[in-house]
Design brief:
The chain is of the alpha/beta class. It is 40% helix and 21% strand. The strands form 4 sheets. The protein has a 3-stranded parallel β-sheet. A two-stranded antiparallel ribbon has the order 1-4. A two-stranded antiparallel sheet has the order 2-3.
Length: 238
């Protein structure tokens, strides 16, 4: 999968004038044996080097820097996963490519629901994950940093005009902040779908590589998650 472009220098055409080297603001062009080479990891594919080269020795070309894999979960439904190589840019496009592949697969298997597990934050990949969704489920925690990130991503959700709900994880760690977040959600027209309590069983489940609802189905967190699932089901049926 190609999700970005990089500069390449044709050593046979290169006259070693150094204009590309002098123009690169990312320091991705280095001197080598009297000539110049591109350090791919640093290159952002901006095209300045191609523009300043007087002999056309520099070209911006697509690079293979990611992959899409399809797995089948132990519950029987398919999973489409995208992976970007270390140090590469283009995470937003990776998400778009994964979503497109998932749509094709969903159509083939006649799936009635497509779930996109988006990244944290409000960057390009988060925007790509949110765009085109019929509903958005956000997970946050009662901390100032988490509230700040929540406000940023909610601005994106509201920009697209998508209905949303929020799950507050470990809400009892800072009850006052949890209340502030709940008021914020209500003011913006959203819905608090669940308040997940702190629960030691979650830690044990993570260590054991199991969902907490399987390892400890009667634990406080499991009960809250099951209630959240039921509310989300009803939300999607509206």
């Amino acid at each position: 999968m190609s999700v970005s472009e990089k500069a390449f220098i044709d050593q046979e055409l290169c006259e070693k004038c150094g204009k590309c080297y002098e123009s690169c603001v990312f320091d991705s062009i280095e001197k080598l044996n009297g000539g110049y080479v591109v350090v791919s990891m640093y290159c952002e594919g901006c095209g300045v080097c191609e523009a300043v080269c007087p002999v056309g020795a520099v070209k911006i070309e697509p690079v293979e820097n990611g992959r899409i894999s399809v797995f089948k979960s132990r519950f029987g439904f398919p999973l489409v996963v995208g992976q970007l190589d270390v140090g590469e840019s283009g995470s937003g496009k990776v998400v778009s490519e994964v979503k497109e592949e998932a749509r094709k697969l969903a159509k083939r298997v006649e799936a009635s629901l497509l779930i996109v597990d988006g990244p944290p934050g409000a960057g390009c990949s988060a925007i790509s994950a949110i765009s085109g969704a019929s509903h958005v489920l956000l997970v946050t925690e009662p901390t100032k940093a988490a509230r700040h990130d929540l406000e940023r991503v909610l601005s994106i959700v509201n920009h697209f005009g998508i209905p949303f709900g929020v799950v507050v994880n470990r809400f009892d760690a800072y009850p006052e902040m949890s209340s502030e977040i709940s008021r914020l959600i209500e003011d913006l027209g959203g819905e608090v779908l669940a308040l997940i309590p702190s629960d030691e069983e979650v830690v044990h489940a993570i260590v054991g590589g199991q969902p907490v609802v399987e390892r400890a189905p009667s634990s406080p967190a499991s009960k809250a998650l099951k209630e959240a699932f039921e509310r989300i089901e009803k939300l999607l049926e509206r």
